[in-house]
Specification:
Blueprint lengths: L9 E15 L6 H10 L2 E9 L4 E10 L7 E13 L10 H28 L13 H18 L1
Antiparallel strand pairs: 1-4, 2-3, 3-4
C-alpha cells in the first residue's frame, strides 16, 4: 500500500442539471441482442469551462447516449456541472500541471460522476446495466479545439 498525495484540485460539488432516460424494447429478443445494441450506441459529449473571479471554476458536461433513439434499448442524456477549486498559490497558473488539472482532470471527474449516474439508473432498467465505455479524453479535447477553430474562421 502507498500513501496518497492529495491533489491541489478540489471538487467542491457536483450537480446533475438534466437527466433523460427512456427505454425502447422493440427489436430486442435476447441478452445477446442487448450487448450488440449497447456496443453500437452513438455517444456524444460536450463540455465547457467557466471561470469565476476566484480560484473556483465550473465545468459543464453533457453526455448523450443513443439520444436519437434509433437503436433499441436505452436512450440517455445527462447534463452535469462540477464546481472546482484550484488554488493559484499552490501551482503556477501557466504551468502544464495546472492546465492539465484544470482542463483534463475536471472533465474526466464530471464524466465519471455522470458515468455512475447512468450505470445506477440503467441497473433498474429491463435490459440491465449500461456502462459508459472508456473515453479518449485527448481526442475529445482535439475535436473541441477543431470545432472552435472552424467557428472562429466563420465568425
Amino acid at each position: 500500500m502507498f500513501e496518497i498525495k492529495k491533489s491541489s484540485l478540489r471538487l467542491i460539488e457536483f450537480f446533475l442539471l438534466e437527466n433523460q432516460f427512456s427505454v425502447k424494447s422493440k427489436g430486442i429478443s435476447s441478452a445477446k441482442d442487448v450487448e450488440q445494441f449497447f456496443d453500437s450506441y452513438p455517444i456524444s459529449i460536450d463540455f465547457a469551462h467557466q471561470d469565476t473571479e476566484s480560484d473556483e471554476f465550473h465545468v459543464f458536461v453533457m453526455v448523450k447516449v443513443n439520444n436519437g433513439k434509433k437503436i433499441p434499448g436505452y436512450s440517455l442524456l445527462c447534463n452535469g456541472m462540477g464546481i472546482f477549486e484550484l488554488p493559484s498559490d499552490t501551482i503556477e497558473k501557466d504551468s502544464a500541471v495546472y492546465k492539465n488539472l484544470k482542463l483534463y482532470s475536471t472533465v474526466n471527474m464530471v464524466i465519471n460522476h455522470i458515468r455512475n449516474i447512468i450505470s445506477l439508473q440503467t441497473a433498474f432498467g429491463p435490459h440491465g446495466r449500461y456502462n459508459l465505455p472508456p473515453i479518449d479524453i485527448g481526442d475529445l479535447f482535439a475535436q473541441k479545439a477543431e470545432k472552435q477553430k472552424l467557428k472562429n474562421k466563420k465568425g
